[in-house]
Amino acid sequence: MYKDVFAPAAPSPVTQNVNMYKYDQFDDTFIKQRIEQFRSQVTRRLSGHITEDEFKPLRLQNGVYLQLHAYMLRVAIPYGQLNSTQMRTLAHISRKYDKGFGHFTTRQNIQYNWPTLSDIPNILDDLHKVEMHAIQTSGNCIRNTTSDPFAGVAADELVDPRPWCEIIRQWSTLHPEFAFLPRKFKIAVNGADHDRAAIAYHDIGIQIIKNDAGEIGFQLFVGGGQGRTPVIAKEIRAFLEPKYLLSYLDSILRTYNMIGRRDNMYKARIKITVNETGIKEFTRLVELEWNRIKDNGFDLPEAEKQRIFNHFTLPDFEKSEYDKVAYEQLKQDNNGFDYFVKHNVFGHKEDGYSIVSISLKPHGGIPGDISADQMDIVAQLSDDYSLSEIRATHKQNLVLPHVKTGELYQLWQKLTDANLAPANIGLLTDIIACPGLDYCNLANARSITIAQMISERFDDLKRLTDLGDLTLNISGCINACAHHHVANIGILGVDKKGVESYQVTLGGSSFKDASIGNIIGPGFSVEEIVDAIETITNTYIDQREKGENFLTCYRRVGQTPFKEALYNVA
Amino acid sequence: MAIDKKIKPLKTPVSVTANLLLKGLSVYLKTDGSWSDNIADSAIAHNRKQETALLELADITVRSQYVLGAYSFPVEIKDGQAAPISTREVIRASRLPTIVPVGLTEKPEWQNEFTAANANSYKH
Description:
The complex is a heterodimer. In chain A, 37% of the residues lie in helices and 16% in strands. Chain A is α+β, with helices and mostly antiparallel strands. In chain A, helix 2 (25-46) runs antiparallel to helix 3, helix 8 crosses helix 9 (279-293) and helix 15 (448-457) packs across helix 17 (526-543). The termini of chain A are far apart. By secondary structure, chain B is an alpha+beta fold. Chain B has a domain at 9-94. Chain B has helices spanning 48-63, 87-94; strands spanning 9-20, 26-29, 35-36, 45-47, 67-78, 81-84. The chains are: A alpha+beta, B alpha+beta. Chain A binds chain B through residues 45-48, 52, 66-71, 94, 99-101, 113-114, 116-118, 365-366, 369-372, 374, 437-439, 443-446, 448-449, 452, 495, 498-500, and chain B through 19, 21-26, 63-65, 68-69, 85-88, 91-92, 95-99, 101-104, 108, 123-124.
């Protein structure tokens, strides 16, 4: 299946066994045709046969943006799943066409910041060789469906959401009705008890549940989103039989497509439609449409559903036994390894296996950035330790999903050598940051710089561990690409008369207990913002009760003590 | 460009910038209608008439598919040369982010290939 891959020249047999969707002839031909179509569009643009106004929507639907310094290409990583061959190709592309690095995004995708326009069809060719593409990573269409990065392996999972994500991907790719929606549209699916996919902040959030009768189905939420108007999605259906997923999604999209606000781009997202229409009336309209189309050929035939599901059977795990006493001793003897296990290692469905998160948030680093050499190292480590499988997370990190617990120490040593072992997953320095004004045409302020300064100030793992679970996200403008509204501590960069200023919100959450952060007061300058974050964490330490994490403490004590500490008001 | 005192001056002088169609890099319009990646080389308009003239000059290049998205932006004048004022334009003019990504060490390379002489025949 995988042809002409890059170093190493041929894929290992194990790569081909990764339990992920593999292209068939139809997919292969479709992607090839799409690349040739885009190549022709690029040629016509460069020769002046089409204008920028005509070209822009075409390039956007192929993931091509124009940023401050150069074009940017966003490559889709369907629901965050990659194999080692694909990761090596991503490294190869960054070396050959870009500047030797890539940037993982909050939709589990990867961005290249420096491609030349005429090279992009060739990049797409290289991606196609390993069954990847950049279709619908931008534009007013259905974007890459995101999911739990631990999907299929999480110890707390009810059902693997990946086959459903793949079904949604195939249904939504170039869906003729939904190619020009009022605005972009994002769907997330979560199959575990813990919401690791932030479904409450998606246009459609899908939670896989079991009803009282023990049947598996979907709880559907609609109208969530961030941007300038953050909204928590509302339940549109408490339980949907799985066989009706596509007809129900069709009905939601059709309703939105009919009544969504095309007159004002700031009011064009479905969250505004749902709010203006009211969830009750919106639900009525959706159900009306659904009752009209269901059982009428809109859903997937069972055989096709089964074909897709067959790609996602779990691998045959070798028996994994390890010396538990020796393992505990290693942790005791090695503080760094102990922290790594505490923060970056998670429970796997299979006995003797662990899920390992690779933090792309090193001391003073750029959140989500990874060099080509590091990509190759991750690919090799996934071959050696994780059945050649890798996941990208919406928190801009990577995951090795199938690591034998007895091999964790070896893996940790190799990750450490590659500067890929910061033990800070879920901690204050596991910061989500958008590219901000360093790259983005829409940004008003830099966000990466602030993330770097915070990670340098809060570098002590003992201190970070004491602060506990704490999310901090930084957006460089109100579009909120870095999810600042839903962080425990959110930072929003704004332009205040030509000078960068940073507004702080407290109390957001992207998990099951979803909440939107509240603005704490006037903004801070670049010079003040890190001190302000330290004041907030110190206030939390002063105020917390035993075992209370930041969010629980904030919800109990409210804004007042934080406000008093930040602005010296009594 | 000479200052015509009869015409109401702009609040601040402006220069014209755009991105190269092929590479996307930020470039600045020179008085002869060609482009430089160095903002210090850029033509400076002090009044509305001069600004319009510069934008019209830039439009020739836009129509020749060499650059896209030309616009004027406020500059300050240092030693007779344009310098950016806003943080956004300071970062654009540097041709690099203010942070140093792993792997990125050099500014993107580029040489102007567009002149008034080849305006009507330029091809990528």
